[in-house]
Amino acid sequence: MSMMNSSQVSYFTLAAYYDTGNLKYLYFMIVLFLYIFIVGLNVVLIVVICLNRSLHEPMYLFLCSLFVNELYGSTGLFPSLLVQILSDIHTVSASVCLLQIYCVHTYGAVEYLNLAVMSYDRYLAICCPLHYNARMTFNKIATLIAVTWLYPLLACIVIIYWNAHSQLCGNTIYKVYCDGHSIVKLACSDAQVTNIYGLIASFGTIFGAFIFIMFTYMKILNVCFSGSKQTRQKAVSTCTPHLASIFNFSVGASFELIQSRFNMKSVPSMLRIFLSLYWLTCQPLFNPVMYGLNLKNLKRNESKLTYKCLIQN
Question: 274 and 27 in contact (C-beta within 8 Å)?
């Protein structure tokens, strides 16, 4: 293929798909059920938090932002995935591909920043309980949530702009969905600036948030070891699902970053597909399950909402 701007490329081919015959209908039903389940769980928890005044506290408002992001990320992947599973020709238009890149990148950044903000909230609640209400005001909550969303949404526009104006020598992406680094690999000219910006944006956000999370938890552990039994129980009950979420997302995101930056052809194709999808499919399911089952207030209000729905029916 001759050199052209990605804006001149009308479509990209997703080469990680292969012919599954009639099994594609089974895969379609499994993925569709997973998507419906993810949307249902996250919507229920968002509604529970919004409708119950007792849950209009910082921790639950940050959780609501997290659940909205799970809906956003899964919607950026699943509809396209469902279409491709049933399709015999695995192509996607350039505009849809760039939109998916934007959704996937912003989802990952918002997720990590949200988890970092939640660790700050837990730090104030456990280490500075007497000053918690004074420090965690409504304006501060709104500012933290706004920054969590606006920074990635604006920063990723630059990546999309450069990808849209790159000189490309191909249109084949060896994945089941579009991602920014795959477009960079197709560039004919030197894409060093785009690559460096992508590395700084990705690793800066991830490791910056990760270091901040580790700092807050070092402080929390210090208070737990020197504090009362009640303090330790409070820390365990509220921090366990948060730590589990951080670990799960970090593992999935690490798989994807390694796979996108290094040659993984020696790894079986099915394993590569699983690893590339893990962080976009498991995290939106993992978070509502973990928080819905482990946080007593959320679990109790979720049961009340279910009961009301049953009574009305």
Answer: no
